[in-house]
Design goal:
With 182 residues, the protein is α/β, with parallel strands linked by helices. It has one domain (4-180): Rossmann fold (3-Layer(aba) Sandwich), CATH 3.40.50.850. Helix content is 32%, strand content 23%. It contains 5 helices and 8 strands; from the N terminus they run βαββαβαβββαβα. It has helices spanning 26-43, 97-103, 116-129, 155-169, 176-180; strands at residues 4-9, 46-52, 83-86, 108-114, 134-142, 146-148, 151-153, 172-174. A 6-stranded parallel β-sheet has the order 3-2-1-4-5-8. Helix 1 (26-43) links the parallel strand 1 and strand 2. Helix 3 packs parallel to helix 4 (155-169). The two termini are 13 Å apart. This is Cysteine hydrolase family protein.
């Protein structure tokens, strides 16, 4: 079987109800991410946490050094689990994520996290461009309502559109239960 890693993208405090940028369905998505995290740990597979911080103190969320920028306790990293700090949407851009995966001989990835339409999308597309087969667990991801050109788009539709797009050409997109039942 191919060496597989779990990438947890931006499961951070600011996305939860008490944070600066709460997402729709965040608690359930984080619970699903915690389930798959437990399975990876049990198997002894590589787990990589990705944490976003903006580079300026006036950022709308994930301000440097803030409580909101910390990894949420539901998926907190254990000693020895790499934590990649990023400053861009793409988890691979200007980080050591690719080097960590290469060092461990990783051949395929499972991606969970937030936001579906930004950093999950960015990480998944970049990983696929690097040649990794990627599986996204759609119910372990969350996003928020958006607006474009006067049109309000509910979070469920934003999420569905991005999962459909990723499933078309970049990743296998399945539920956490489907993944764990394999």
């Amino acid at each position: 079987m191919a060496r597989q890693a779990l990438i947890l993208v931006d499961i951070q405090n600011d996305y939860f109800p008490a944070g600066k940028w709460p997402l729709v369905g965040i608690e359930n998505a984080a619970d699903q991410a915690a389930r798959v995290l437990a399975a990876f740990r049990e198997r002894g597979d590589l787990v990589v946490h990705v944490r976003h911080e903006f580079t300026r103190d006036d950022a709308p969320f994930f301000t440097p050094g803030s409580e909101g920028a910390k990894i949420h306790p539901k998926v907190a990293n254990l000693p020895g689990e790499p934590v990649v700090l990023k400053h861009f949407v793409n988890s691979f851009r200007d980080t050591d994520l690719k080097a960590i995966l290469d060092q461990h001989g990783i051949e395929s990835l499972v991606v969970v996290g937030h936001m579906s339409h930004m950093c999950v999308d960015g990480a998944t597309r970049a990983a696929a461009d690097f040649g990794y087969p990627v599986t996204v667990l759609h119910d372990a991801c969350a996003t928020l309502d958006l607006e474009f050109n006067g049109v309000k788009v509910p979070a469920a539709q934003v999420h569905a559109a991005y999962m459909a797009s990723l499933a078309f050409a970049y990743a296998e997109v399945i539920s956490t239960a489907q993944y764990l039942d394999r």
